[in-house]
Design goal:
This protein has six helices and no strands. The chain is mostly helical.
């Protein structure tokens, strides 16, 4: 029983101060996998091994704009870029909730424009 309790405490400590863990914990299992993959791509773009290693308290508006540009330049679809930006906003909101990021910085990150979708289905029909 002691090992289970210490494992639970270790898990709680890991989640407690990591914005990515906090954000992902609030998602469904399938959403968690999908957004974790997107955030890991963001971590690599920012020069980290993965999303859990990112210093989320240092993320600013210009970093998120650079993430969007990198994904776009890499050929990612607008829907993928927008989902990735949503994941970044989620992690940033968790960082704000943990007092790791100011409200002003969070609002600037949240204000990064999404990519416009082009819907070719309705063109000329």
């Amino acid at each position: 029983m002691g090992q289970i309790a210490s494992f639970a405490q270790a898990q709680a400590a890991r989640v407690e101060r990591n914005p990515v863990e906090i954000y992902l914990a609030g998602l469904s299992a399938t959403g968690r996998r999908s957004m974790a993959q997107k955030l890991n791509v963001v971590g690599v773009i920012l020069g980290y091994a993965d999303a859990r290693s990112v210093a989320w308290q240092k993320i600013r508006f210009d970093h998120v704009v650079a993430i969007r540009a990198s994904l776009s330049d890499g050929g990612s679809a607008p829907a993928t870029i927008n989902a990735t930006l949503a994941a970044v906003r989620g992690a940033a909101k968790a960082a704000w909730s943990l007092d790791l990021l100011s409200g002003e910085d969070y609002n600037r990150i949240a204000a990064v424009k999404v990519c416009a979708h082009q819907d070719f289905r309705a063109v000329g029909h």
